[in-house]
């Protein structure tokens, strides 16, 4: 009598659990692009660090430019997850939602090795408006500005557009200055300055 076939799933092999080449390329590119800048990193370094071949990269991405754009799409998704995390804790308090993000940013931006916002960095790296990475970054920043207007309106600002622009300027300044000044830099005053800006917008 033949042995009864097991209904349980087969054990995963090392090949099953090892990340696919495309996933390794993607995660390696994100780490290198964020830390070193997109222009500074070549395809050779990415595939070497990821432990894959160059043809593997080009099977997944048409070019380094497209890989850079995909990196920024991933970065944007992660950004919104962090930025909107306060919604769950403070569903009816727009100010508290925003401040939760600002408090976390102030901590990150005063740490050694902080590299700012990857999307902002991409705009600086690519001054032309036709690069795929810049297009992703510009679209994100437009959405971000709109979101700040929504939050400013919900907070009851008398001029929500003006408050949103003030907050955006403050945030972009934090992304940049955090890279230069470190633990004792202007980013340590982010929360206090934001509170003063919001309070002034209510009067």
Secondary structure blueprint with pairings:
Blueprint: H1 14-17, H2 21-36, H3 43-50, H4 54-60, H5 64-83, H6 86-89, H7 94-108, H8 118-125, H9 132-155, H10 160-181, H11 190-202
Helix pairs in contact: 2-3, 2-5, 5-9, 7-11, 8-9, 9-10, 10-11
| Secondary structure: number of strands | 0
Q: Biggest β-sheet: count, sense, barrel?
A: none
* Order of helical and strand elements: HHHHHHHHHHH
Helicity level: 55-70%
- Coarse shape: elongated
CATH class of the largest domain: Mainly Alpha
Counting structural domains, the number is 2
Question: What is the name of the CATH topology of the largest domain?
Answer: Tetracycline Repressor, domain 2
Structural class: mainly alpha
From the N-terminal CA to the C-terminal CA, the straight-line distance is 86 Å
CATH superfamily of the largest domain: Tetracycline Repressor, domain 2
The number of helices is: 11
User: Could you tell me the radius of gyration in angstroms?
Assistant: 22 Å
Give your account of this protein's structure.
This protein folds into two domains: 43 residues, Homeodomain-like (Arc Repressor Mutant, subunit A, Orthogonal Bundle); 131 residues, Tetracycline Repressor, domain 2, CATH 1.10.357.10. Helices cover 69% and strands 0% of the residues. The chain is built from eleven helices and no strands. The chain is elongated.
